[in-house]
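Model: Ready when you are.
Researcher: Fold this.
Model:
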Amino acid sequence: MTDATSRPHAVATQAWRIAVVGAGPAGLALALQAAQQLPRAEISLFDARPADQDLAGDPRTLALALGSVQMLQRLGAWPAAGVQPITEVLVSQAPPTIRLRHAADAVQLRAIDEAVPMLGAVLSYGTLVACLQRAWQAAEGAQPQRLHSRFGQPVTDVRPLGGAGSVAGGVEVDAAIAEHFDLAVVAEGGVFADQARKAVIRDYRQTAWVGTATLAGATPGRAVERFTRDGPLALLPLPPAADGSACAALVWCVPSDDDPVAPLSDTQRIALLDTLLPAAAGRVVALSPLKHFALGLNAERTLVDGAIVRIGNAAQTLHPVAGQGLNLGLRDAAALVHALRHAAPDGLAPLLRRLEWERGADRWSMIAATDFLARSFTWRWPGLPAARALGLAALQALPPLKSALARQMMFGRR
């Protein structure tokens, strides 16, 4: 990211009209940042859902890295309750694997080792969106002349027009009214199975089963990722249940063509999980009903198309193996607002070209890493489990390398 002092800026003279399409976490965070940091910009936030639709109860789980948590705290949009800090991440491999006589067979990342209060945090989609929307609506109420909510108006088209973004919103059932903006930011992504195919696509033929596990003997704040023969299996710590029971969000990735989870009863699923997870995860004693969705990579080659910028799942939908999809989108949003805030007098187009270049390393390194890990679970090469175990052992044995990995997971590639 370019230092604010490295070139002249024209904050006082830039009065852009900006459209933000999609009021999910990435779109709301971007709109709120732009409202706070671009005092002369006129910002319109579009979303198909009505403003009074209550999303607070949406239970989908989000894992946010420390950098994302800090960004939301600075925005005044961090929930006061319903959040579980991640203080430790344990990554290991399920049998069959090799046992190393004098080396650990797991990687342990700890917040205390990195001198930070947490590595990240887990919360529900509804908790985060409700908090962000309240903050946005408070900002809009204070400055209604330049901040506009356009809820209940689905966007039917976003296209470049003479170098500017044009947003056609469904203002009426039978007609759309085209409005011109200097910049359109698309943050409306959806899930892999429902998306139009982008330039870079890979169907992993994997399914993610998700739900909530109740645990006995779990360590508070510990996230567990287990590499199994079929795919990655993760437990993300959640706030305790009302009765004090330890809970975790379950993400269980398996092959779609030979799904070992689909035909099992809840009792059988619990028994299988307890054989796959390490003892350090605790013991699964109950499961909520599980939902499932298809996994794939679906990414644009560029974030920028004329005066249209795509962020979050609108730019790249990733495999959840590293839990970095939303974090990457939030970093895209922060970089865009920073670039707009410290824009040089040479116009919007050069600014967006610089943004594309500056975000490339972080974006493509994360796309490549998650793609490699996801595809590796489809390989049946002799010795692959042993190689993976040796890699984990080497990472645990090299503290500087392990710390570098933790820092990249917390803050992205800088």
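Researcher: Now this one.
Model:
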Amino acid sequence: MDTILEQLRKTNMSHHIFEEDKGSKKDTASSPNPEEKVPLKGRYRCRVCGYIFDEAEEGRPFSTLTECPLCHVSPGGFQQIR
């Protein structure tokens, strides 16, 4: 029986896997300086209780929200507002 690595070499898939790894390293290297802050402008409303999550007021992006602080619904229960 061939090992997985041997099977990959036979199908030439290892080349693609290593290329993807190189690409992911480039992405992190070319990412913006973490000290440069992106302006927090988004506002999101909980569809269940109406709580408004304002990134500027909270001082953090919506992506860090784990649940609504009032009704505990997941971030999927929020809708972006303008």
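Researcher: Key takeaway?
Model: Residues 2 and 49 are 57 Å apart (CA to CA).
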